[in-house]
Give the backbone structure.
Amino acid sequence: MTLLLVIALLLSPFARTQHSQSTAEQGLVEKGSSKAEVHQALLDLTNPWTVMCVAAHPDDEDGSTLTVLRRKYGIHTVSLFSTYGEGGQNAVGPELYEELGVIRARETIAAAAIQGSEPYFLGMKDFGFSKSDEETFRAWGRIEALRRMVFQLRKLRPDAIITNHDTSRGHGHHQATGQLILEAFDAAADPQRFPEQLNQVKTWQAQRLFVRGARGPNTTATDSQPTASQQVTIDPNEMDPMRGMTYAQQALLGLQQHATQGPWPKSISPTGGRIARYTLVKSAAGAAPLPNDAKTPVDGLQLPEAIRSRFTPPTIDEKPLTGFAGNHTEVLVALMNAKRRGAFTAAKETVALDPERFRLMSSRLDVALAKTTGISTNIRTRDVLAPGGQHKLEVTLDNTGEEEVAVKRWGTSGLTVAEQLDGLKRPDKLLPGTSTFQEIIVTPPKQTPISVPSAEHLYDGRLFGSQLVVEAELEIEGVRFVVSDAKHLEVAPAVEITNNNPSPCVETPATVLSCSSASLTLTNHSAPFAGKLQLTAAPFGHKLESTRPISLGPKAIERVATGPIATLAPNERLNFRERAWNINASLSDNDSKAMVTERRFPALYIPAIAVAGIHVGYVSSFDSTLKNSLSALGVQAKELTPDDVATKDLSGFNTIIIDNRGYEAHPELIASNDKLLKFAEDGGTLIVFYHKTNEFNPDERRKRPQLAPYPILIGDDRVTEENAPITFLQPGHPLMNFPNKITQKDFDNWIQERGLYYPREWDPQYTALFSTQDTGEAPLKGGVLVAKYGKGNYIYTSMVWYRQLRAGVPGGYRFFANMISYGKSGAADK
Ligand SMILES: [Zn+2]
């Protein structure tokens, strides 16, 4: 089967003049490599070392040090993350959990591009904030986490490792990661550990391990205090002359890529970026001592003589090429001479001593040639691929420099059964300032694994889709070098089904069977499609089915509102004991009758009721949880903007909710706070979800008064165990009994945690309803505080109702329904 077929040779859209070629047309191009790119490529030839930064979550990496090591010293840098950070919060959008993990992986890739490093992930589950290494290892499996980390050390072969995490402080994931790297440092070199990996990788002994901070981790290995000579200090505040800003400023640009974890500082403080001090905590037996004046974690390391003699970087008059970056011809000649004398290559048995390092450095020499000559090859596509479908891609070969080059080979690999390394029609040569490009058709094999929705592929290695590589081998004056480009392309079914309802879809007695109305989006990634969409569901034991014809043009996107596929017949009684059910959507092709895709959308019935007739206003922060939950309860609700709060009459609402971190998401609300309090004073119920200390507590500098009607002071305490015991302090309180009677069962099957940023002081006007605590800690009683205020009520709650509402935890809906109903039907006046 021909998977890769050249179908067209087209003119470059930016062509000015054309040079006739035997197989392709060429057009003029203008852009060359930037000075900074050329400089980096030349600098990279001077440094054969790899430094790995180990971090628990995206944004825990030391971006400043990574930037300095690569941009100033040309060190090959990689970062290794234990998790994708999916248990974190999202400051900019509605995504949580696996969807957040996908975004954070992409943010990390963007940050790494600025740092000049490469990110890798162990894919351990981020189950949210954890107070202990012990809880973390229970979730991860200590051996499994170690196995994955050892594999990455053996694969990536760092000479020195740095980490921000010690073994005993902070987030349990940080402690666990700090412990794992201490153990992995030795285990990676030990053929007795994880011997099954040795089919794929060789053992690897890193030379040095550093932990950030003045003192090392609390290892039992040595009691001696590290001396100053065992430290490396990295100051990122030096100006990078190639990029016109300090390394700290570049690192901040990198940090800002982690947008979901913001807000980040807009600029470096006038006193400069933080200086990093790393303490050497482990050295390999026989490793070179760290010099007193070490500037980087690899200073003083020596390659074996056999390798060192092959790794002499090219020079001009014995000076490094970076000093000549402006002198194009001399640099090019020096690079070509390095190629001719076989720099970074050696006899087989020498290469076998350290093949990865030879591969790294010889590819860096090729990159230096590519950047200096301004030649590149690229893949351009915005397509999502469908197995078996035909996809047009564009591959280009650009010569933005001054040399004519011969093109010896041009082809692709990946996404094809047989690699077509010389499968593209190529010109014999590429003239200076010209470009050639071709449209190719890629037909991914039928068995190409699907990679969408990405959130379902966070842990199975398909997160980034399938890779396609284009590679060209070029020759100038008898010297050959390779340029390449790699793209990860998402792979989807020919027609992809997505559901616009929340997942899970929740229905309650007031909205029973509402989830049987699906709102689907069908996206055609392939040729025109004609088929059948079949929906089946079995809510409460009823079997239901509906089928409709579907016809879609290429690339068409169609929204399908299915209407209820299930309705209640008059006097029909349902067996409400069955709580969870699914809508199954499947799409089959008319011609082949084959199933194109099948998806299952979960629905839940939750027995939670709100008082009839109430009218709720809510200010959302980052997601649609409040909107969806109020809709599931069948409550009349209206989203309020901060402007609505400031200007509209609020007296028509019974209840107003400020979503979690609402005063942070909408600082304008602070100015309207008196109006919100007046709403409560006049008889409404004002509910405020959790805030961080620096988002809620009074702060003169930020012109933020006490926001609650009676003082509340928020602290940093969390209850991270989602099954932490709950004690009812006021079992007879109306909030506990009306309209839903709250029992211990309502605290079963919670997600991630109980609550965070618990109030640490509050006015006696408040009644506290629950007490809870993590194992071995003192009870926290401020999770729900409720007070009468004027004719109305005020509720502040730091419990994570939003996570429970979103995940469809029944207790979350039942207590939420009580909060929004509070004060209605005399419940509060008991
Ligand atoms: Zn972290």
